[in-house]
Amino acid sequence: NKSAVYNEYYRTSGKTFTSTFWVEEIDGQQPIEKLRQQALDDALTFKSQQIVANKMGVEFEIPMDFDSLTLQRMVFNEKRAQTVRQGGVVYGPPSLSPRNYVDMIQDQLVQASINHLSLTDFKADEEDILEHYQRYLDEYGSLEDQSSPVSLSSFSVIWQNEQTTRRYFELIEKTKKDLDLTMVNENFISVTL
């Protein structure tokens, strides 16, 4: 929230950050007040989402006090760090800041609510699915009718050691032989399916 508020003031008034930035009056308002209002809005949105999910019957446990939430985040981050130490894959950063952790929990709550709705009030029956499929066929044709190239514009290799990196490139070369891959240049591979 802090960076968003600062960026807004920078964009609208060209105000740069100083030690008194948060308490200076800019366009009739102190940035700290704008930050407080934004934090309150975020909290109300999250609480509203929790209430709606609860009324729908979505089971999703969120710690209600700061200490429990902080402990839960620390345990979560330690599990991620342990996964990384053991050579496993984690999606996103190795550890989440308090704000990122709360955002993740909020996203999970929203997704759990959507999943609940898709299995209850908005559950698609077989007729709905067939109707959707028919509309897709009418608009795009069948997948068998389509033979367009799939392009891989980039890929990432996490360097662990020279042996692992060499193995990645061996797998890429094998994949190029198994599929009809064409190297357009060293950074671009084209494949026709």
Strand order of the largest sheet: 1-3-2
String of helices and strands: HHHHHEHEE
Q: Tell me the structural class.
A: mainly alpha
Rg to the nearest angstrom? Answer: 25 Å
What form results from the Cα inertia axes?
extended
What ranges have pLDDT less than 50 throughout 5 or more consecutive residues? 187-193
Helix content: 55-70%
Q: Mean of the pLDDT scores?
A: 80
Q: Tell me about the biggest sheet? A: 3 strands, antiparallel
Helix count from the secondary structure assignment: 6
In terms of DSSP E residues, the strand content is 5-15%
Number of strands: 3
Structural features, described:
58% of the residues lie in helices and 7% in strands. The protein contains six helices and three strands; from the N terminus they run αααααβαββ. It has helices at 2-13, 31-56, 66-85, 98-119, 126-140, 162-178, and strands at residues 149-152, 181-185, 188-192. The radius of gyration is 25 Å and the shape is extended.
Question: Would you kindly provide a brief summary of this structure?
Answer:
This protein has 193 residues and is mostly helical. The chain has 6 helices and 3 strands. The chain has a 3-stranded antiparallel sheet with strand order 1-3-2.
